[in-house]
Amino acid sequence: MKSAIRRRVLSAAVALAACTALPFAASPAFAQNAGKPKVALVMKSLANEFFLTMENGAKDYQQHNTDKFDLITNGIKDETDTAAQIRIVEQMIVSKVDAIVIAPADSKALVPVIKKAADAGIIVVNIDNRLDQDVLKSKDLNVPFVGPDNRKGARKVGDYLAKHLKKGDEVGIIEGVSTTTNAQQRTAGFKDAMDAAGMKVVALQSGDWEIDKGNAVASQILNANPNVKALLCGNDNMAIGAVSAVRAAGKTGKVQVVGYDNIGAIKPMLKDGRVLATADQYAAKQAVFGIDVALKAIAGHKKQSELSTVVETPVDLVTK
């Protein structure tokens, strides 16, 4: 498993390096453009290591391509502050950026302001958390999504967990912000795996992607369901909180914990077994691919309606 992961990560790194070296070789019109495009990367909470990694990846990409584009990065204080993220997008519209690459805090609430940006001639690319397709259709808006299949990634984690459980075991799911598509898809993937293996999902609560909320929810689940054998967490922040709850309940080694994101803070927990598995969706790679899609659209003088619908990025199982 470790060897396979190394090969996948190496392949991703090679692909990313190639992309960095020659990001726009097929777009000579872009090179003839005297003014560099301004790209705004709008993320969720930078207190979440996943988005800090995303920001650092984007900045590194820009530093290797300083003659190609300028980069503005923004993040909100916490992952549920949708209003603050809407204000950031409005500020970017006023600033007349050429492109916005956004990881939306809410799959529906951000659509109107994104529509406003697109109407202003700004290229918008959606990464990480997919915007709600029905709401986009209601606004007659096409926004390309660059990111992983979250359901598939969570299914990989859930399938691996199932190998360490017995049929009929009780499990709990700690979901991210429930109004986000990626939270819903990860929960669906976890359920797919548990249903296929014959496990019983006895609890499903939102931990809002946060460590403290994940800890509180995990404690509630463990207290209400003393026979729970595993907690499936929609991201690694909530998994870290769940690990603390398991320890406080005196159930270390008796309740398995899995996460999603493969942030740096989770690696020691994978190593010593406090966390059984997670999924790597390559935060930096998502940002780079999203920026690249936006820049190629600008170079090709494409309209928002002409952009591809989905660019799927990798997601891989990570274990000890």
Task: Provide a brief overview of the structure.
The N terminus is likely disordered.
How is the topology of this model organized?
Blueprint: H1 2-21, H2 28-31, E1 38-42, H3 49-63, E2 70-74, H4 82-94, E3 99-102, H5 111-119, E4 123-127, H6 133-138, E5 145-147, H7 150-162, E6 170-175, H8 181-197, E7 200-206, H9 211-224, E8 228-233, H10 236-248, E9 256-258, H11 267-272, E10 277-280, H12 283-299, E11 310-312, E12 316-319
Parallel strand pairs: 1-2, 1-3, 3-4, 4-5, 5-11, 6-7, 6-8, 8-9
Antiparallel strand pairs: 10-12
Sheet/helix structural class: alpha/beta
Biggest sheet: strand arrangement: 2-1-3-4-5-11
Mean pLDDT: 91
How many individual β-strands?
12
What form results from the Cα inertia axes? elongated
Overall CATH class of the largest domain: Alpha Beta
Largest sheet report: 6 strands, parallel
Tell me the CATH topology of the largest domain.
Answer: Rossmann fold
What Rg do the Cα atoms give?
20 Å
Tally of DSSP helical segments: 12
Question: How many separate domains make up the residues?
Answer: 2
The name of the CATH superfamily of the largest domain reads Response regulator
Q: What portion of the residues fall into strands of 2 or more residues? A: 15-25%
* Low-pLDDT runs: 1-34
End-to-end separation: 9 Å
Helix-strand string: HHEHEHEHEHEHEHEHEHEHEHEE
Characteristic terms for this protein:
alpha/beta; Rossmann fold; disordered N terminus; 320 residues; 2 domains; 6-stranded parallel sheet
Walk me through what this model shows:
- Strands 2-1-3-4-5-11 form a 6-stranded parallel β-sheet, sandwiched between helices.
- The chain has 320 residues and is α/β, with parallel strands linked by helices.
- It has helices at residues 2-21, 28-31, 49-63, 82-94, 111-119, 133-138, 150-162, 181-197, 211-224, 236-248, 267-272, 283-299; strands spanning 38-42, 70-74, 99-102, 123-127, 145-147, 170-175, 200-206, 228-233, 256-258, 277-280, 310-312, 316-319.
- It is elongated and about 60 Å long.
- The protein has 2 domains: 27-147 and 284-313, Rossmann fold (3-Layer(aba) Sandwich), CATH 3.40.50.2300; 150-280, Response regulator (Rossmann fold, 3-Layer(aba) Sandwich), CATH 3.40.50.
- It has 12 helices and 12 strands.
